[in-house]
Amino acid sequence: MKLTLDALNVLDAIDQRGSFAAAAEALFRVPSAISYTVQKLEQDLGTSIFDRSGHRAILTPAGNKLLEEGRRLLSAAHTLENQVKRIATGWEADLRIAVDTVVPAENLLPLMTDFYRVHRPDDQDCPTAQSKGTQLQLQREVLGGTWDALVSGRADLVIATGDAPAGAGYSHLSLGEFTMVFAVPPGHPLASAEEPIPSSDILNYRAVAIADSSRHLPPRSSGLLTGQEVLTVPDMASKLAAQIQGLGVGYLPLHWAQAAIDAGELCVKAVETASTRAPLQAAWRSDNQGRALHWFLEQLRQADIQEGLLNCR
Fold first, then answer.
1. What pLDDT, in 10s, does the model give residues 165-224?
2. Neighbours of 98 (CB within 10 A)
3. Prediction pTM value
4. Measured between alpha carbons, how far is 240 from 102 in angstroms, rounded to an integer?
5. What is the pLDDT of residue 120?
6. What pLDDT does 253 receive?
7. What are phi and psi of 98, to 5 degrees?
């Protein structure tokens, strides 16, 4: 067999991270090992996978097809591994948690600390020690990308905003709501505009938006007007910084913007036809009965845990 799951995993990491060096860092390998894996695969398959003629390596049509089908194999292999592990012990081989950028990723770390403390005790005779093999993976997604991660099998548990995509087979847990505000820096022309500001006035100014991370589902946008100039950034922290710098306007979760508002770096403006509340929910596949997933869901049902998800430090 010339094609291995490890080689496919390397290709996926290169595509997701954008470079051989970044993929090496993500996979905890040296860059030369990544280059060798790709070169060996190209030699074995007798075709180029990457076009190296430019400043960065780009997938060839053959490479794109290989990665597209390869991701299905990786997903199937992961599913099989988890099924076998769950049958044997009830614990997943790994648990992948995808979190929308509206939730600061570090807010999930205390939960992970508790999981390792409770389920990886030093006493190997303890029954819960059998979960020692469950590896946790925290992924950052944006808008529809969080749902895409669940539907495509890239994640086992998601903390997402917006409506779930059509289709059965998924369970949901409400995690409450958060407030959205339209914010501009004090020096922006809209800062002194009469309220509520009509959409026709907002359309005259550049918006700051976060790129949807969906791979398969249609990408979503939030708070953008048709025909509006847009500056696209990768995450919520970048969006907040861009709006403080006056690079554009837009909606921000209040828990992200509050510190800047208190410091006078942003001011909140009322606008016409704007929804100020947005739901947050957890979702997972209904047939997933893994014990690690069950533990995280029990924690997420607690009011103090839900409140802590949206705290910004």
1. 777 789 999 999 999 999 999 999 999 999 999 989 999 999 999 988 888 887 777 777
2. 24
3. 0.70
4. 11
5. 60
6. 94
7. -105, 130
Helix (H) or strand (E) run with residue 41 in it: helix 31-45
Q: How much of the chain exceeds pLDDT 90, in percent?
A: 45
Asked whether the beta carbons of 143 and 161 are under 8 A apart, the reply is yes
Q: How many Cβ atoms from other residues are within 10 Å of residue 55's Cβ?
A: 6
Number of other CB atoms surrounding residue 4 within 10 Å: 13
Alpha-carbon span 96 to 152, nearest angstrom: 12
Residue 265 sits at the vertex; the CA angle it makes with 262 and 266, to the nearest 5 degrees, is 85
> Which spans in 90-176 are helix H?
109-119, 144-151
Q: Is 34 exposed, middle or buried (0-12, 13-18, 19+ CB in 10 A)?
A: buried
Q: Which residue has the tokens 């309220």?
A: 195
Q: How far apart are CA 200 and CA 232, in angstroms?
A: 21
- Check residue 121 and give its pLDDT: 45
Rounded distance between C-alpha atoms, residue 75 and residue 27, angstroms:
17
Cβ 239 vs Cβ 208: under 8 Å: yes
Q: How far is CA 255 from the centre of its chain?
A: 18
Which residue numbers in the chain have pLDDT < 70? 1, 82-83, 85-88, 120-133, 274-275, 313
CB contact set of 160 (below 8 Å; sequence gap of 6+): 98, 100, 141, 146, 147, 150, 280, 281, 282, 283
Spatial CB neighbours of 124, under 8 Å, sequence gap ≥ 6: none
CA distances from 77 to 71, 117, 291 (A): 10, 29, 20
Mean pLDDT (the chain) is: 86
The per-residue pLDDT for 85 is 65
Opening angle at CA 60, ends 55 and 64, nearest 5: 120
Round to whole Å and give the CA distance between 107 and 244.
Answer: 23
Q: Which two tokens stand for residue 250?
A: 């837009």
